[in-house]
Amino acid sequence: MQTLMSYETIYLLKPDLTEDALLKIVEQYQGILVERGAKNIIIENRGRRHLKYPINRVKDGVYIQMNYDANGEVITLIEKSMKINESIIRYMTTAHN
């Protein structure tokens, strides 16, 4: 059995997404976590915020924060998926003890 570590992933979505599209993306990543055995999943929509500098000509973004306990393989899978998702501007995962 693999040990689970606590992680936090924050990702930034394009501001022009509809509420339904945004919810679909959040549910997609929550589904990946559940499928891969993550525990204590907490997802928060941190809202739309103005960026300090434009990223790919985008000036605002919707911040989503996910906290969960999982193994490292889940991180690789999620970040690979986020990298190719055109609705996600940026993402970052950090480990917590």
What would you call the quaternary organization? single chain
Run of helices and strands: EHEEHE
The averaged pLDDT comes out at: 93
The neighbouring-strand order within the major sheet is 2-3-1-4
Number of helices: 2
CATH fold label: Alpha-Beta Plaits
Would you write up a description of this structure?
The protein has helices at residues 19-35, 72-84, and strands spanning 5-13, 39-55, 58-70, 88-96. It is an alpha+beta fold. It has a single domain (5-96), classed as 2-Layer Sandwich (Alpha-Beta Plaits). A four-stranded antiparallel beta sheet has the order 2-3-1-4. The radius of gyration is 13 Å and the shape is globular. The model has no long low-confidence stretch (mean pLDDT 93).
List keywords for this structure.
Alpha-Beta Plaits, four-stranded antiparallel beta sheet, 97 residues, single chain, alpha+beta
Set out the fold topology.
Layout: E1 5-13, H1 19-35, E2 39-55, E3 58-70, H2 72-84, E4 88-96
Antiparallel strand pairs: 1-3, 1-4, 2-3
Short description:
The chain has helices spanning 19-35, 72-84, and strands at residues 5-13, 39-55, 58-70, 88-96.
